[in-house]
Amino acid sequence: MLTGHPDPRINSNEYGPNPNVTVYEWLNQAPDLHGRVAAFASWHAFKDIFNEPRSHLVLQAGSMRPEGNRSGPREGAARAVYEQTSELEPGGHLGCLSAESRSSTT
Length: 106
Prior knowledge:
By secondary structure, the protein is mainly alpha-helical.
């Protein structure tokens, strides 16, 4: 769960990269934690929420596939989950039916 303070400049999910530093980014700036802070999320908007280009966080959001050449049991398990799950539907929702789809199936 994430909490925070509202920023009136950010008024839609398509706003773009977050101009504010998140706690995750702040932690990633600490010398003993740099490169060890990660976020895994199912919503594509987290790429902008965490401002990936500026924060340099390890981030997998939406339908992003794991990157890099790491190998090991954890990485293999994560890669298998991404390979075996369905892509996000338009709008960034996984497994959610629109109201129109729901009414046609009931």
